[in-house]
Amino acid sequence: MRNSALSALGRRTTEPPISWLMHAALSRPRLISLAAGFTDPVSLPVTETRTALNLVLRSPRTGRPALQYGSTAGEPKLRQLTARHLRHLDASSASSSSSSRRSKSRTRMRMKDKDENYCSAHLLITSGSQQLLYMTAEALCDAGDIVLVEDPTYFVFLGILQSRGLRARSIRLQRDGLDLAHLEQVLQSLRRRGELRRAKFLYLVSYFQNPTGITTGFDKKRGILKLLKKYEQAAGHPLYLLEDAAYRELRFAGRDVPSALSVRGASDRVIYAGTFSKPFATGARVGYGILPEPVFSAVKHIKGNHDFGTANLLQHLTAQTLASGSYARHVTQLRRRYAHKAGVMKQAIKMYFPPEIEWWEPEGGLYFWARLPRQIPTGVKSEIFRSALRGDVLYVPGAICYADDPTRRKPDHEMRISFGNASEVDIHEAIKRLGNVLQKFL
Amino acid sequence: MRNSALSALGRRTTEPPISWLMHAALSRPRLISLAAGFTDPVSLPVTETRTALNLVLRSPRTGRPALQYGSTAGEPKLRQLTARHLRHLDASSASSSSSSRRSKSRTRMRMKDKDENYCSAHLLITSGSQQLLYMTAEALCDAGDIVLVEDPTYFVFLGILQSRGLRARSIRLQRDGLDLAHLEQVLQSLRRRGELRRAKFLYLVSYFQNPTGITTGFDKKRGILKLLKKYEQAAGHPLYLLEDAAYRELRFAGRDVPSALSVRGASDRVIYAGTFSKPFATGARVGYGILPEPVFSAVKHIKGNHDFGTANLLQHLTAQTLASGSYARHVTQLRRRYAHKAGVMKQAIKMYFPPEIEWWEPEGGLYFWARLPRQIPTGVKSEIFRSALRGDVLYVPGAICYADDPTRRKPDHEMRISFGNASEVDIHEAIKRLGNVLQKFL
What we know:
four-stranded antiparallel β-sheet; 16 helices
């Protein structure tokens, strides 16, 4: 047989670039990887998880149910706790910023508390938030459809678009989030070319963005939703905002920003993707989404076909840690830990990076973003990347975080460097190695 | 907005019929459900799971890794243990049947042990075997493509086909598996009509089939693979056999049948889907697949986009129970338990069902299959179904297990009744109630 039987999707789906990077890492024992977005291994809540699992499995009320099938949308108690958790996050962030604003925002918050943006009825538990991103693309997009993304954005999401035959239109990023003027330009241009009906949603990594570390301000979220609404008539259908808040709880400086769910009157256009994996145990892979109808029902039924519900044992574990407060305690510790590791990386960058390099310090999450002078490439085939690998240090080349958008140039002079996985000593050493490489090319 | 933004897939994906049945059950507290394919709750391995998790999380070697991200294909140790487990199943089943055959089969078995059919390199760990079924359909089929299925078959799989816009062609079922003559007829007819190039694989629930309880004999598996091979030239690409062995280890009578992987020279056309959920803890949701290239790579990359790997904690749990022997001990107990429950159901059926009803006793799995006289419907809108519901007993109507195949009539006079979830007392009582209803209509 010369021909394969693969579908168009099967043919389009390729190995993600990060896998290649991982393989490269495996063959070099001395290598320090600043590439992977892994969780800090030292802080993984091994004891907390063991305690919670023993409680779940010892209790006659939860022991057997945790090992039985559940429902597709998720364990009812976890859905309730998650909805409450999210409502609490948004309420605290709104009130913490209200002191510097007018009382109007406080009034708005009171209204929000009453409305149903955080209703567990529209909350779906997923296998990490990644599964929600995938299923949202399935529910909303046919091959050839258009998704608006940040420029740059989360490269695994770009892999989903590529696999499903979707087109990306990239929106310029400013230090405080999406460039609203550019978003409007892109929407106008799509309308002019009769392509707006192919646009379905805007994908926004709103907190400590992967890869740049940028956080989108609340006013920008409001602005995005307003613009999307403005162009719905021409699109002929709702234009959704998919807010990926995966890193939200990993803030170690500054104040939390309310989610797009709390933009007044816009919750029927917001799909919120959250996760307990990154702030607690990545190996437990429990994420969640809040989605408006009809997207919620479509995604829930799609999930029924995928796996008819996330493993009940993991859901009971997560509910237990949320209810007991062990989740909250762990997140507090984890933030301190990342603050410290980010500090170590920052000091090392100051010490070893040449002054020509611009770098962005995040207020949370796992990533620094560094920009070299434009003419110096950092991609996998570049001299810098190969020198770094020979020097036993690995980073994520910025280029793989840019969509294939024919209307945009793909920068190739940046790097994502993560302080998540490496130890403090290794962070220092790796930045020193990387600094040495960079000195040679500048 | 009048129009929704949903994709064709989003629009096609509907609530599975089983959900509707579950809802119906919830509102009637006295109802006994023989509908759900749930695991026996009393036998769920709560203590074994707790012990295994404590071992995993107490060990410095596995504690943190279990809570970290893993690789997309799965935890290397679990992949090895699973490959060995499967090789062992096939080797035992082949040798147990060799006494009644010629020594040729023993020689064949020795050869097989050397070959790479059970290589962990082509083994992928998934979130239950359900996820493997979904991703296989993604990797192989475009909308409009054809999948061959048993008539009847697993209705959630039919939901996947429906959702993805695929067409089913149903192959008649005999008491020992697929009707090979009818399979050839269907393949011929597809070739005649120029549609064979749209056919991609045959889906076979090979052990104690859902819903009929039928097991496909080894010779039939060989026959299926031979026929598929014969028509590949006309199809222009490989025609795969997707063997869904979800119930395989739940055998309580008779001898195991080797899987299609052990059909000589055919392993490059077999996709084998197995699971640890049904024989151990359904709430842990760990399944696996062995797939030939290029399907393996395509499915692995698709899994990367879905969730980049099944929860590591569950994989470590499963590896621990396999390695310690607690898995094997549990399966032995579970088989005894299901043998007993099937016996209770059989006695009750003999006692309460009218003699006009034909029923099939399984040698394993979770289901009896009952056939009423042809003119008496059992579907959700039938008098029998409604009477049964009023009488507080629920079954799966046979009709929902038949594909929408324009070339086949959809029988509506059968029922799937499960002894998996209900207690012995409830099984007896439910069959009595169902018998009373049936008596009224016969």
